[in-house]
Write a structure and sequence with these properties.
55% of the residues lie in helices and 0% in strands. By secondary structure, it is mainly alpha-helical. It has one domain (13-45). The model has no long low-confidence stretch (mean pLDDT 84).
Amino acid sequence: MDKPHPNDKTSGLLKDKEVLRWYNNIKRGSKITADEYLKVLRYQEHS
């Protein structure tokens, strides 16, 4: 599994193994899409 960049604002979300599994599954198709979805998830978490 890929590790998040240490300065990534969303890296805290990827500590959850279910979120990491979801992210990695999306990333298999498109890393850009996975990163954007993760940003949306982070935004929703803080709303």
